[in-house]
Amino acid sequence: MYNDNERNSYEPNYSYRPNYDEPLPTPEGNPNTEPKKSNHKMAKRVTAIVLCGALLIGGSFGAGWLIKGGILDKKEETSIMVSPRDLPEVTTVNVTGSDKLTYTEIYNANVDSCVSINASATGYNFFMQPVKTASSGSGFIITKDGYIVTNYHIISNSTDVEVTLDDGTTYTAQVVGGDESYDLAVLKIDPGDKELQPVVLGSSSSLQVGDEIAAIGNPLGELTFSMSEGIVSCVNREINVDGTPFNMIQITAAINEGNSGGPLFNIYGEVVGIVSAKYSSSSSGNAVEGLGFAIPIDDVLSMIEDIMENGQVTTRPYLGISAYYDSQPQVSGVSAGVYVESVEAGDPAEKAGLQAGDVITMIGSSIITNRDDINSLSKTYKAGDTVTITYVRNGQVATTELTFGSTTEANTTSSQTTQPDTSEGYYPYEENGGSYSYGGDMDDFFEQYFGMTSYSGKNAA
User: How many CB atoms lie within 10 A of CB 207?
Assistant: First the structure.
């Protein structure tokens, strides 16, 4: 047997102490209170663990209380905040021309005066198969007995036209007449016992860049009676459409197909223009964004009244000549002006002494450089007005007095101006940048396949 001291003597680094109450030696072999410190730290750790457990248990209890019996469990206190402000009452105001209106008031005052237009026609294609075409647009009521203004291109060649009011009432409309050059048409419906509400017409000449405007129409033909708003971007904006210059109001209000023919309102709720989506494209045919165009009401009001009375515009000035775009400098020696190809017998040009081969260089004080300048005469003159014509004949400048006739007296009504093909039996036809040639009777051809009269390759003015 060996005693503890002997074991310690053989294993000096091993301590065997069955009595755990005795202090352990320090690394130096001297007893001290260090183990008690370790016990103290252990006690702290135990205390910390107990406290953490208590906190966890308490936290779980607290969370449970919050969910089950506390704040979140009080469903009766969960609510959606709603503004206590009273909703404004929507009222319809009268358009007086002196009081500015909000956009809401403009809409409510005029939506009953706006209409949706659906037009259809049946024709035949090249293979003599029946083809039905349809178009849609907008318009506005101008009289209580049912006269409606819209764009000509919406109802052109249509056989059936229907007009629908904001309340859903639909009428069959009669085409009273129109003017293709100004894209203007007038329809008539029979309202029966229903009292229609016409718009109030204002003056487009009072518009200035920056003025607020609004349009009501049927964009895409489906989004009926929609309003868009914006400002006037430009006044007297001249754009060229198929060789005809148009004086337009440029606006920032959203204009899309289907808006054509709808009214343009000023901030007073008056109609100052006729919206046309037809011109909302660039010269290359690309659609544009952020701008639209409207025909100034001042430019067409007399035409509207003329159509209502006579079924057509009778006041458009008429010269009675057939002319080319260019001045034929190789023939006339004049580099600018309109070359007169022929003069219609008995018409104003012949009465004024003009002859084939003359080059018109001025009408009144306006310089004439091409056909567009003659097409725009209706902006300045009307049938019955007398004006001085300046022309060149055989290298000599001369003048004459001419009294305009009316387009209703015109012997020819061709609307395209091109130099005719010299090939015998062939006539050029141009539309949307395409061309076709056909040998034979062109009147029969165009009437049969296109539902229109032939283009003779020159234009009567």
Answer: 24
